[in-house]
Amino acid sequence: MLSDIFLNPGKKIAVLMCAFLLVIVFSYLEMNALRKVSQEADHLIRAEKAAGELDNVIFGRLQQAVFTISRSSFSLEALESGLETPVLLDKLETIRMVTNASIVYLMNRSGTVIASTRYLENHEIKTLTGNKYEFRPYFIEAMKGNFVIFPALGVTTLMRGVYFSAPVVPLEGEQPAGVAVIKMGPEELDSVLSRGDRQSVLITPSGVVFSSSNSDWLYKFVPPISDEEIRRIRETRQFEGHSISMVPFNRLKRSALINGINCIISTAVVGTSQWQLVSLERLRKDYPLNHQQKEFLIWSILTLLLFTATAMTLLLYGRKVRKAEARSVKSEEKYRMMFAAEKDGIMLFDAENMSLLEANHVITDLYHYAQEELIGKKFSELASPSELTGVFSEPGIEPETERLFSFRYHRRKDGTFFPVEVGYHYFIFQKRRLICARVRDATAKNEAIQALRSSEMKFRTLYENASDAIMLLEENRFFDCNRATLELFGCNSADDFLNRLPSEFSPALQPDGQDSSTAAAEHIRLASLSGNHRFEWMHCKKDGTPFPAEVWLTSIKLGDKSVIQAVVRDISGLKKEQ
Questions:
Q1: Could you read off the pLDDT of 366-393 as tens digits, one per residue?
Q2: Is the CB of residue 402 less than 8 Å from the CB of residue 413?
Q3: What pLDDT shows up at residue 244?
């Protein structure tokens, strides 16, 4: 019967045409599938990069700052006295400016704000001092000894912000004396999410959109979310005054139809904070294929043509065994090419004995092993000993759920350790539990972080150890200085110098008869206009001793503010020689 089909010329042409159409349809579908895979992979990388920036640049900075306040002696002294002193406010304001925060404040055990930096509302300067927020979760959890990141609208200010809080503990094991709080505004978060032509949302651990490139999605829930979580958010007044509804996509899915447009979805975890960055991008039919995918497509088409020819031959001669073998070869080739084309290192382990079953060429390059040397090795021979306990055996992990770990250390063949970022998930294959580990070399990222820390330390060392007196002014008052400044003006501590006007360390009149206060303000104004200004000035030490000085004023940017840097040099010796 089958032989009759191929012996009949008309039927033979029909079968060949069907085979040709099959190749065209397969090629089209395969090419679209590869385009989607390529776009999804690139989109995920961009989302992870943005999440890393949020974690390193914003969350890390505010977390370190609130820890600094909670462990400082001035916070404990303020909570014990209950007084809001100018010195305390100056310290809190300095931290607020350095961290680019909105408000910094301290709360006592009853939840009352005892000291707070000022904020501007409707052109009026206001403070939180005296307000009670004992019902706020960031206060309740911090009083239990926990560090808290809490997104919400301010009960008093009604402004969106992220609250970073930490307990102020007198001694280890004692009850907290109060809570230190830093509120960060949404501007930096919104700026990161607004980059590019994709839509991005930052989701709180409770599943609410807190920052978004699309303002219509703010304060909406991102499915899936439980009714219990919705009830808790409403009870704590976390987003007071907003009717919370659902966004038109699910963060656990990889695509969604939004306003009639097919979009791909990528979700990245922001550090260890349990916040999530969800990015949506229009699915492009013209997304470019990479070199490996083009090769894969060509080989898939060629393989399909070969399979079709083989299948027709098998139909003609009835050789079913050869047909099954061709399918097996095609499947194996497709698996191998996809495995080899992966940009990250991929390893497959047997979950029972943690022995390595398979690894791609990226893994051999990273660990400096030959392929045959790797197969059969135990996980403990590749990973740092500190990573072994519970890494792949934590209870409650569902199949196909990827777990990510940043800056783990793995061991190369020569015994040296190198930093990696690891993602893993397990799956069941033929009743066998397997673990897939995705490994990425984090050496460059680690070195960049270390270089940044080293640069900051070098700058601070140069500033503190400079022989010239260097100080910073804002609104005509000193807010920072180095050690040489205190020595030049005869001050015992920074408190004797900071938050004072230049005229307070000057005689009432300058040698030319000008009022020191008026003249100082004019020199600062000239420096702000021209960028720098140099002049001679008669200064006084703390005890009133006058001395002539040469002053250099320079206008600089500190964060998003313009401040004046002053360098003062005593020229008494030069004047005597003249």
A1: 888 888 888 888 887 887 655 545 544 4
A2: no
A3: 67
Task: Supply the pLDDT for residue 373.
Answer: 86
> 150 is written with which tokens?
């809490």
Say what the pLDDT of residue 555 is: 92
Question: Could you give the 3-state DSSP secondary structure of residue 564?
Answer: strand
Q: For residue 257, what are the contacts with CB-CB under 8 A and spacing of at least 6?
A: 263
Q: Is residue 184 within 8 Å of residue 62, measured between CB atoms?
A: yes
- Cis omega (within 30 of 0) for bond into 224: yes
Q: Following CA atoms 298, 303, 308, 310 in sequence, which dihedral angle do they give, to the nearest 10 degrees?
A: 150
Share of the chain above pLDDT 70, in %: 82
Residue 189 CB coordination number (10 Å): 23
Q: Please, which pLDDT band fits residue 12 given cuts at 50, 70 and 90?
A: low
Q: 533: which strand partners?
A: 553
240-275 pLDDT tens trace: 666 667 888 888 888 888 888 888 888 888 877 678
- Residue 398 identity (one-letter amino acid): E
One-letter amino acid at 263 equals C
| Among 134-148, 277-291, 501-515, the least confident range | 277-291
What type of residue is 490?
A: G
Lowest-confidence segment of 18-22, 109-113, 181-185 by average pLDDT: 18-22
Name the one residue in this structure whose structure tokens are 């609410």. 208
Residue 40 token pair:
């999804």
On whether the pTM is more than 0.70, the answer is: no
Rounded to an integer, what distance in angstroms lies between the CA atom of residue 346 and that of residue 336?
A: 12
* pLDDT band at 395; cut points 50, 70, 90: very low
How far, in Å, CA of 242 to CA of 197, rounded? 28
For 412-488, strand residue ranges (E) read 417-429, 432-441, 469-474, 477-481
Instruction: Go through the chain and tell me how many residues it has.
Output: 578
The pLDDT, as a whole number, for residue 424 is 72
What gap in Å lies between CA 47 and CA 151, rounded to an integer? 21
Given this model, what pLDDT does residue 323 score? Answer: 64
Going along 177-246, which residue ranges are E strands?
A: 178-184, 199-203, 209-212
Q: How far apart are CA 29 and CA 479, in angstroms?
A: 65
DSSP-derived secondary structure letter, 54? I
H-type alpha helices, 353-479: 361-367, 371-374, 443-465
Burial (CB < 10 A; 0-12, 13-18, 19+), residue 282, is middle
Assess whether the previous peptide bond of 507 is cis (omega < 30° from 0): no
Tracing tokens 């462990």 back to the chain, one arrives at: 71
CA of 539: how far to CAs of 152, 174, 480, in Å?
A: 49, 49, 18
d(Cα 289, Cα 36) in Å, to the nearest integer? 9
CB atoms inside a 10 Å sphere around CB 69: 23
DSSP 250-274: -TTSSEEEETTEEEEEEEEEETTTT
How many angstroms separate the Cα of 532 from the Cα of each of 523, 537, 553?
10, 16, 5
